[in-house]
Amino acid sequence: EPEVTQTPSHQVTQMGQEVILRCVPISNHLYFYWYRQILGQKVEFLVSFYNNEISEKSEIFDDQFSVERPDGSNFTLKIRSTKLEDSAMYFCASRAGVENSPLHFGNGTRLTVT
Amino acid sequence: AQSVTQPDIHITVSEGASLELRCNYSYGATPYLFWYVQSPGQGLQLLLKYFSGDTLVQGIKGFEAEFKRSQSSFNLRKPSVHWSDAAEYFCAVGHRAAGNKLTFGGGTRVLVKP
Fold first, then answer.
1. Phi then psi for A68, rounded to 5 degrees?
2. Which residues in chain B touch residue A49, judged by CB atoms under 8 angstroms apart?
3. Do the chains contact at A108 and B105, CB–CB below 8 Å?
4. Contact with chain B for residue A96, Cβ under 8 A
């Protein structure tokens, strides 16, 4: 069964550094999402992406964050200057173009900012 | 704004016993409803979903859930748990009007005693 893949599984970075989290969505999916889960807290929506542009973003997704689909397969989340509070598990998800298709999640990237 | 409440943070159940996880939501219309499971170190796996129609839905791994509009609930059940069911379970709601993005509950961690 096709799946969403995320790399790396764990990323450690120093405060102020830029990080790029990578995702390969399921190949025929059209909608892409990033969520994050701070340890012990809820899974929170960050951003949705469709037709090569952001369709919605949350308050968390400020100017430090950006997303990109640089080619036909990858979907990346960039944090320009990481802060300690960015430490979390980041999940990528994708879904097909059918209206009620469910989100399929990757295994996540655990980001640790020191 | 939509919200999801999972009243039980932790549940401990004996292997072979039945399991019920509660989920209540607040939404202006009937949302799409989902249950996801997260095993340690893993991503979010879809257990089942409800969009419309029969209010009792069957999912993978022997799970089922029942949508009760009058109670704004979507409780997850399994008649007989297995040790491998130990995980964290998340209820989530979404809607076409919200771009199908999901709002998650806080999760319920299930521990299975031998």
1. -155, 145
2. none
3. no
4. no
What amino acid is encoded at B87 in this protein?
A: A
Question: Is the Cβ–Cβ distance between A81 and A18 less than 8 Å?
Answer: yes
Which residue bears the tokens 């009937």? B30
Q: Distance between CA A54 and CA A38 in Å, rounded?
A: 23
Distance in angstroms (rounded) separating the CA atoms of residues A52 and A106: 20
Q: CA B63 → CA A42, B20, B37, distances in Å?
A: 22, 10, 11
Q: Report residue B58 as tokens.
A: 């069957």
pLDDT, tens digit (0-9, with 9 covering 90-100), for B14-71: 999 999 999 999 987 778 999 999 988 788 999 999 988 899 999 999 999 999 999 9
Q: Is A109 on the interface with B (CB under 8 A)?
A: no
Q: Give the separation between CA A6 and CA B42, rounded to whole angstroms.
A: 11
H helix runs in chain A, sequence order:
none
Alpha carbon of A89 to those of A9, A21, B8, B56, B69: distances in Å?
Answer: 9, 11, 22, 32, 33
Provide the β-strand partners of residue B48. Answer: B35
The verdict on a CB contact (< 8 Å) between A106 and B42 is: no
Q: Does residue A25 contact residue A95 with C-beta atoms inside 8 Å? A: no
- Asked if residues A72 and A52 have their Cβ atoms less than 8 Å apart, the reply is no
